[in-house]
Amino acid sequence: MEDANQKLRPWIAIWIRPTDTMQFILSRPLAWRSVIAIIALNSVVWMIDGFSSFHLADRGALANKVFMGFVGGIIVFPLVYMFIAWAYRFFGRWVKGKGSYYDVLSAVVWGSMIPGIFGLLWIPKILIFGKELFSVNTPLFDGSMTLRYLHYGFMVLDCVGLVYGFYISVKLLAVAQKISAIRALLNILISLSGLFLFFVGLVSFIFLLKMTTIASFTSQAISYTK
Fold this sequence. Notes:
79% of the residues lie in helices and 0% in strands. It is mainly α. The termini are far apart.
């Protein structure tokens, strides 16, 4: 078994042997090149998703927006990984997680590899659908049943990538946190719920602060007019 693990290639083995792969990864120094490659891959995929969701082709100055999006992604996405790893480790204590920050960070990064690989489907999507992927105006897509079926096929593959990627993420986090897969699933769900409540609270606080400031200025303006 040890000899087999010596030859294990994480990028391939993680698809069918996630537990062994995570143990292999954690038994060695952090592979920064692989980590950076996975983060870069997912950053590009997420940014292209964002460009499509916000119909960037309809907003003008496309080159400038794409450039700014990639520059911003280089800064933001590594911080997102670090923040998620911190949340998993913090809330993981509630389910008896014992992993170090770097072990959990490794699980988060490698767990995102499979959705990132499926994200490469953007290449054939762009070749087939072109600019219409980033626009609300889709005359070619609307006039072709073949393109519609292809689009639905890509949607199914995207869903497969997300579901299987989530399953792999649970298995990797279980190894990193030294807990069962059920506890790892609870770790993820509790962490995501906690982050959601945190951001809802933050947005609510900013909104109330803004409304209080506006009310204060309005009150002062009325008093001056008197």
